[in-house]
Amino acid sequence: MKSLVLATAIASLSGFAAQAADFTLSSADIRDGGTLSDAQVANTFGCDGGNISPQLSWSNAPADTKSFVVSAYDPDAPTGSGFWHWVMFNVPASVTGLEGGVTPNKGAPDGAVQSRADAGFASYLGACPPAGETHRYIFTVTALSVDKLDLDQNASGALIGFMTNANALAKAAITVTYGR
Fold first, then answer.
1. Angle at 163 between CA 25 and CA 23, to 5 degrees
2. Nearest to 122 by CA among 80, 82, 94, 90
3. pTM of the model
């Protein structure tokens, strides 16, 4: 009996890994392993970039996807817990991308919610590491097994991350760097 349970668990994990391997994220504005352009850099905290969210496209999400979460996260921020630059959740399963330049009033799909996350406002905040440092920025799209997360724009990045991971079917990411 134990071997049947183990075999079933391994088969389930293998299926998840296969779905995750097929799910991809691409962008006309950023590339995995690349460097952010000034357009995606913040225009505050001592930085003078364009503060424009990048264009993102995803494909091959699992067939049972019911919604998506889009995020931009800096694991190197000197906070002890990283920094959530952008979190958009409840993106409908029919959506396969976002145009660049999403703002609080333009570009988010109907029904999607942009969180205040760590930036303090419900929109994208570009990169702005401390002077002399280079940080990683991870743009992720997560396919979820639920239609929506029962949260609002005031939800923290950590809470959204917890709910996202609890309902994740697959993730696709692009990691870029930026330094000053």
1. 20
2. 90
3. 0.88
Cβ(36)–Cβ(30) below 8 Å: yes
3-class secondary structure, 64: coil
| Mean pLDDT lowest among 20-29, 79-88, 138-147, 170-179 | 20-29
Cβ neighbours for 50, distance < 8 A, ≥ 6 positions apart: 38, 39, 40, 41, 43, 126
How far is the C-alpha of 139 from the C-alpha of 172, rounded, in Å? 8
CB 65 within 8 A of CB 96: no
For residues 164 and 116, give the distance between their C-alpha atoms in angstroms, rounded to a whole number. 16
- DSSP annotation of 18 reads H
Q: Distance between alpha carbon 135 and the CA centroid of its chain, in Å?
A: 16
End-to-end, the C-alpha distance of the chain in Å comes to: 57
Residues 30 and 174: beta-carbon distance below 8 Å:
yes
Q: What type of residue sits at position 133?
A: E
68 token code pair:
């998506």
Tell me the three state secondary structure of residue 14.
helix
DSSP per-residue letters across 154-178:
T--HHHHHHHHHHTEEEEEEEEEEE
pLDDT in tens, 117-175: 898 999 999 999 999 999 999 999 999 999 999 999 999 999 999 999 999 999 999 99
Instruction: Supply φ then ψ for residue 61, to 5 degrees.
Output: -65, 155
